[in-house]
Recover the amino acids of this structure.
């Protein structure tokens, strides 16, 4: 995809460590507002906890990632279930977090087709399926992007792998016995946190939607 030089590049604190770049191309306003475009937004949601977690796993983590796929005016992501919230609600909720958005190209699915596709995925992406290392919001975004983008657009593999590596290789620097213990304990704890966060944040998301006069989503 050609880069529009007139659009300012996007910068975020995690880009150098994550992808070895200082910026990524900006997304033209026309693409940002086109409901038929597929966008992937990568957020840093850890804040101070990113450094705490880095210390505990003996390596520098560029971010604690969250990824949402935006298409047809809705952002889809995985928490304790597949969530679908209008883009303005998510901008209100996470607008202050370091983030970059990638333009993945046109959608091959209509809104009705997309909703059917998401419904087909729901049984495999419930709270019980969450795994902090192997099946989290980044993995879901990778799956959904591949299904919805036209002509195999999806997230470029090197970029997505960089985000996946944050969780999948999080424990690489630890001795084997600590890796085994960490996989079990961290996954159990994180699943509880994610489920609790999903439920606790639901009211805030719904209140935000009400304030903006938008659909509450699910």
């Amino acid at each position: 995809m050609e880069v529009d030089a007139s659009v300012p590049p996007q910068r975020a604190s995690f880009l150098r460590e994550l992808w070895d770049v200082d910026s990524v191309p900006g997304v033209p306003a026309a693409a940002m507002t086109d409901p038929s475009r597929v966008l992937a937004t990568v957020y840093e949601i850890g804040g101070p906890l990113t450094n705490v977690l880095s210390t505990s796993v003996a390596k520098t983590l560029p971010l604690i990632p969250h990824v949402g796929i935006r298409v047809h005016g809705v952002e889809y992501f995985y928490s304790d279930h597949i969530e679908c919230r209008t883009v303005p609600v998510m901008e209100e909720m996470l607008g202050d977090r370091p983030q970059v958005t990638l333009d993945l190209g046109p959608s091959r699915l209509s809104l009705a087709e997309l909703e059917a596709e998401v419904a087909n995925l729901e049984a495999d992406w419930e709270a019980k399926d969450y795994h902090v290392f192997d099946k989290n919001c980044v993995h879901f975004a990778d799956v959904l992007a591949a299904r919805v983008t036209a002509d195999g657009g999806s997230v470029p593999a090197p970029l997505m792998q960089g985000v996946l590596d944050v969780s999948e290789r999080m424990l690489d620097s630890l001795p084997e016995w600590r890796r085994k213990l960490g996989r079990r304990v961290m996954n159990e704890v994180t699943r509880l946190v994610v489920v609790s966060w999903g439920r606790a944040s639901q009211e805030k998301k719904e209140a935000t939607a009400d304030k903006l006069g938008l659909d509450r989503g699910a």
The domain at 15-212 is CATH 3.90.1720.30 (endopeptidase fold (from Nostoc punctiforme)). The mean pLDDT is 89. The longest helix spans residues 176-212. Helices lie at 15-19, 29-33, 48-57, 87-94, 111-121, 137-148, 157-168, 176-212.
